[in-house]
Specification:
- This protein is mainly beta.
- 12% of the residues lie in helices and 31% in strands.
- It has helices at 6-9, 83-92, 171-179, 223-226, and strands spanning 15-16, 23-27, 35-40, 45-51, 66-71, 77-78, 100-104, 110-115, 123-128, 133-138, 153-159, 164-166, 187-192, 215-217.
- The two termini are 26 Å apart.
Amino acid sequence: MSTTNESRRRHSSILMPSTNEARCTFVLPTGTLGVAFTSSGDQNEPAVSQVMQNSKMYGKLKPGYKFEYMELPNGEMIQCDSPRELAWFFDETSGIEGRRITCRMSYPDWLLIHVPDGYQHDICLGLSEEGKPVVAYIEPDFPDYHEIRVGMAVEAIVCDNGYELTGCNDVETLEALIDSDNSPDGLTILTRDPSLEFPAEMVEEDPQSTRFTNQVVDSPPTVMEFASW
């Protein structure tokens, strides 16, 4: 992990472009995938919510990716309307070699990033084209590096002493808080899909300590909810 601020400051001025949803295709291994899906969007499309670290798809499929179809070696195309139906098809075809899955590389609606003590300098921020703070760069040795999405908008930073900052668009202020001594046990960053709007009234003050792992959440949690995870 980095030991100085300079590594992050080099990236602070990065202007992150707005990205359209690209697509990716992977060959699936046989057996259990170790990938969890949830419903996403107005049409409740199956979307990746978690990839286990021991999964062969770890670092390939990422939280937020939306399932489009699976293709079997015989050319059969499988489309699913729900995570439950998708899980059933994955199970039914688990012994078939050469299955291929195609996903849209969407962002998850909300993603909580836990920054352990000592890794504060391994994550840096930039500005989107709209002037909003976003995750711009992450050092490869950052814990759960493969789960975190560059380009996610930063909505709140919560220190383990209960202090939280939300709705701030000044990157230097946000980075100074990340670098501060307010969180000897680490801190948490709430990020969102940059196309979503965050209602400020959803965040409430709470004096309790906040410690939890990176995870996708279906709706913006309050700081009260942070403490319960």
